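=== RUN LOG ===
request id: a7f3
mode: sequence -> structure
chains: 1
length: 461
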Amino acid sequence: MTDFAALLQPDKSQPARTLHVVHPDDWADWLAHQPPRVRAIAAANRLTGKPGNAAILPGDNAEDWSALLVCNEAESSPWRIASRARALPEGTYRLAAGDPGAAALGWLLAQHRFTRYRTPEGDTGARVLLTSNPAAIADAVRLAEATARVRDLVDTPAADLGPAEIEAAVGDLAKAHGATVTTTHGDALVKGYPMIHAVGKAAAKGREPRLVELEWGPADAPRVAIVGKGVVFDSGGLDIKPAASMKLMKKDMGGAAHALALAGLVMANHLKVRLHLVIPTVENAIAGNAFRPGDVLRSRKGLTVENTNTDAEGRLILGDALAKAGESAPELILDFATLTGAARVALGPDLPATFVNDDALAADLVAAGTAVHDPLWRMPLWDGYDEMLKSDIADMVNAPEGGMAGAVTAALFLRRFVPEGALWAHFDTFAWRPAARPGRPKGGDAYGLRAAWELLRRRYG
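=== RESULT ===
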């Protein structure tokens, strides 16, 4: 992974290039107070003070140059100066005014690339940013590492990231923080986690389904469970997806990636909680023993589920995982899943559809997301749609007919496996950025991670 700590350093008055960040409203006044050579460069580059205008500004000597960015983003935005972190020459930089603050995160993430399968590029130099607040460096680096972990896991093709590799990633995290890991594997799932087994049993040898659990923290601390959907590849099963829909299904373990990253933040920051990370991980494959439309599945909780769509498998494995998480009486459960296309139709890629069973918790989550520029959008757990889950032969179906309110009915399905009295939030996240933006390349990405972390930090930090 990128050495983020090397890219954000304390300002000890060492030599550095100056980065001027000017708001469009201040452009005319700023330019008027610049020497003629700077005004000439602005004119030559046709800079008008529009957001995104940028240039290299000459100094008194040939080597004495600085950089300019016109930006209308708030100072609290992590992406305020991210565009410059890749565009400027390698070297060391400090802001002309103020401290980078939250913008340091975008500076770090802009220099991270998923290079596992790429021929090394020529430009490998680092752009170092100086900060007058050394105490903030560790937080920025941890957030960058957590976000990069999500990106790298999601970007890795399914051929190189199966259930065993998800288990190994949990093991690595546990080793780094002194946590314990328990795995229930393959046919051992039949008795305790029958829906996880049903979904993953058709996978090839070596890619058997499993439930991976991590425990960390004092036994007497408030229990917090983090659950992540880990479908390493989703063919759709016997209700097979068309090719266009299958193309990005390596990202269907994005929920597990978010859960792993969030658990890492909890442990690295020593939150006063008893952490329980629960990741059901499977490949939804096709073989003679694949689960079928019409099968009735028993769940860990005892509820029976008529499988009406093998491509609605994520909620099945999460059902067993949520039931397990609930058995330890957590006061808070957070789950992440790339669960429904309906959420993306409604909200697009940037806004995780967020379902919460408590109004105060929902308000705290939305406020946390707003504070760290990681927006969430609350969706309703509409009781009136519960009847859509009725089955003629079982306790419930996994996928109602008609497709109406698909994100809502999926969340209502999950709610049936959440214990009474536990606070619960479900993030139906996309985990993929379809188009690049400064600091955020096209590909796997974290949505809702920083919002959830901010909530946990405020509650247990």
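=== NOTES ===
The domain at 4-132 is CATH 3.40.220.10 (Leucine Aminopeptidase, subunit E; domain 1).
The mean pLDDT is 97.
=== END ===
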